[in-house]
Amino acid sequence: MRRWVRSAGLAVVTSAALVVAASTAASANTSMSSSNKAPKIEWIAPLTLLDGEVAWFRAWVTDEDGTAITYHWDLGDGTTFSGSAATGGTPPLLHTYDTSGTYVVELTVDDGVGGVTSASVTVVVLDLPVGETGLLRNRGSATSGTEQCITANTYVPYIAVSLAPCDWSGVEQWTFVDGTFRGVNSGMCLTAPDSVVVNGVLFIEYCYGGGRQQWRPENLGSDGSFRIRNVERDLCMDLTSYHLGSPVTLYPCYGAASQRWSR
Questions:
Q1: Tell me: domain 10-126, CATH 3.40.50.1970, correct?
Q2: pLDDT in tens, 113-131
Q3: Is residue 193's pLDDT more than 80?
Q4: DSSP state of 172
Q5: CA 171 to CA 104: how far, in whole Å?
Q6: What's the CA gap between 185 and 173, in Å, rounded?
Q7: Cα distances (angstroms) measured from residue 173 to each of 90, 151, 182, 184, 261
Q8: C-alpha span between 18 and 263 (Å, rounded)
Q9: Annotated domain spans of the chain
Q10: In what order do the strands lie in the sheet with 203-205?
Q11: Cα–Cα distance for residue pair 225/257, rounded to 1 Å
Q12: How far apart are the first and last CA of the chain?
């Protein structure tokens, strides 16, 4: 099956943002000095991926004592990798997760003389297959008795999108490609408003790929839902109500049911 693939945002994850455990306890190695300091870890990791997207991990390790280090990656899906290096950058590690879900990735480094540091970060993989046209269902709307989907019932640009009962008609089908949601019937892209306005209404426009048409699904829910953030506006798709015909708007991302979407 083909997958949706787009470049992941990479986060520089420092020790302050990680779950870190360090130990410099004495060991059987008699050459270890009691003043030995454990290595420090800073690393680059993707925090959200699309299913099938290649994850790129790399660590930067410093050790005040200047000793070489060994390192061990546990990628959270049963995959592990070990190696050794002088302090500094470890070789880049590329990995693709086979299934969506939440994975705890852990890196452990050892300076060989009793200094051991471990750090972990959570990576979320969203289930968004490439090339499969699908709906954009609002999960919160089901509480109103009818699950509703984003619809663009027009071929005219600059017309607002709204909610309608999910029926798999062409006006409700969208393809995610190059970071954009393209309407199957209209051939146009979901677009954020020109200005940063809370509750600004989304509309369709000819696809040009700019920041207002760039969307980032993120934050997988336990029910498989996700919120959708606009790259330029840094706001999420939301609803002001679950009434049929209600417009789809932008609002600060906070994960309420009205911001939860699925395919």
A1: no
A2: 888 888 888 888 876 655 5
A3: yes
A4: G
A5: 39
A6: 8
A7: 44, 8, 8, 6, 14
A8: 32
A9: 10-126, 137-262
A10: 174-177, 180-183, 189-191, 203-205
A11: 10
A12: 16
For 35, left (φ over 0), alpha (ψ -120 to 50), or beta?
alpha
The CA distance from 249 to 201, in Å, is: 4
Structure token pair of residue 260: 């939860």
128-153 in b/e form (b: 16+ CB < 10 A) is: bbbeeebbbbbbbbeeeeebbbbbbe
What is the tens place of the pLDDT at every residue in 11-24? 333 333 344 343 33
Q: How many CB atoms lie within 10 A of CB 176?
A: 24
- The CATH number, out of the four listed (3.40.50.720, 3.40.190.10, 3.30.420.10, 2.80.10.50), of the domain defined by the range 137-262: 2.80.10.50
Spatial contact of 135 and 168, defined as CB atoms under 8 Å apart: yes
Burial 226-242 (b: 16+ CB within 10 A, else e): bbbbbeebebbbbbeeb
Q: Where are the alpha helices (DSSP H) in the chain?
A: none
- Please give the residue that has the higher pLDDT: either 50 or 262: 262
User: Are 83 and 109 spatial neighbours (Cβ–Cβ below 8 Å)?
Assistant: no
DSSP 50-93: ETTPEEEEEEEEE-TT---EEEEEE-SSS-EEEEEE-SEEPPPE
Q: Report DSSP state, residue 122.
A: E
Bridge partners for 73 per DSSP: 81, 107
Q: Which residue's structure tokens are 């060991």?
A: 27
- 8 A C-beta contact, residue 93 and residue 57: yes
Query: What's the whole-number mean pLDDT along residues 130-147?
Result: 78
Look up residue 256 and give its two tokens.
Answer: 């309420």
pLDDT beyond 70 at 30: no
